[in-house]
Amino acid sequence: MKFKKPMFAVVLVLAMILSYGAGASASSNKKQIAAELDYGVSVRLDGELKDLFDASGTRVYPIMYNGTTYLPIRALANLLGLEVNWDQATQTVLLGTKPAGGTDLIDTFKAYDLSSVGWSEATQVQSFEKKTQDIAGIKCENWIRINFWGASEEDTSVASFNIGGKYESLTFQCYADSDVTLFVRGDNDVVLFQKEIVGGQLNEPFTVDLVGTSQLSFQAYHHNGGKTNAYIFDAKLK
């Protein structure tokens, strides 16, 4: 069976379910099915007959389910010369080169809590929304914003994420229009990081030791009242 190149992407996506399902934790995203190994289906790449092998070198075979042929994704990626990896924390198959600098927090995780308190609110923008924002001269496609308008000292909003305790560190940049105090909190509201951010100045990236943190929150206080925006961006987990 020869697959034309446009079909490879379709087959790769379909194959993910069967290639990595056994390594992922049980969740509502899974459904048990009955499928058959089909030893009679062959694969040709540019006319040349190819055998399929898993990471340990054991030969593997196509699977037939509801009239569709599924190929093991690692074996197929090897044929195509693609690197394939598994991100356990996000349950994601990674094809090709791993993302440089780590896992993008803002694009990978949707905040489970974006609070609006008093005269402040927290928002999240992800790359798929196709928005851009110039932050301190840097063109950003994703960010967290904590916005204050006429806020009192007690007003503060929080952006919280569940990152599953799979990461050791977080590196990010922060910029604010005027002075704010930024907190990064971990499990049980423990303060992992606290910094006075000087308004109008872009600092070097900050790195926070997460020590297996599951719940990660950003919180800002604006002590001077009035309007300001605080941004967290270029946030990478490792």
What characteristics describe this protein?
seven-stranded antiparallel sheet; Jelly Rolls; disordered N terminus; mainly beta; 41% strand; elongated; five-stranded antiparallel sheet; 238 residues; single chain
How many beta-strand runs?
Answer: 23
What summary fits the major beta sheet?
A: 7 strands, antiparallel
Helix content: 10-25%
What's the number of helices? 3
* Beta-strand residue percentage: 35-45%
Order of helical and strand elements: HEEEEEEEHEEEHEEEEEEEEEEEEE
The poorly predicted ranges are: 1-26
Q: What is the straight-line distance between the termini?
A: 41 Å
Give your account of this protein's structure.
A hairpin with a 2-residue loop joins strand 12 (116-117) and strand 13. This protein has helices at 5-20, 73-80, 105-108; strands spanning 36-37, 43-45, 48-50, 52-53, 59-60, 63-65, 68-70, 84-87, 92-95, 103-104, 113-114, 116-117, 120-125, 133-135, 138-140, 143-148, 158-162, 169-176, 180-185, 191-197, 206-209, 215-221, 228-237. The model is unreliable at 1-26 (pLDDT under 50). The strands form 7 sheets. Strands 10, 12, 13, 16, 18, 21 and 23 form a 7-stranded antiparallel beta sheet that branches. The chain has a 5-stranded antiparallel beta sheet with strand order 11-17-22-19-20, with no helix packed on it. It has 238 residues and is mainly beta. The chain folds into 2 domains: 5-98, no CATH class; 104-237, Jelly Rolls (Sandwich), CATH 2.60.120. Helix 1 packs antiparallel against helix 2 (73-80). It is elongated. The protein contains 3 helices and 23 strands.
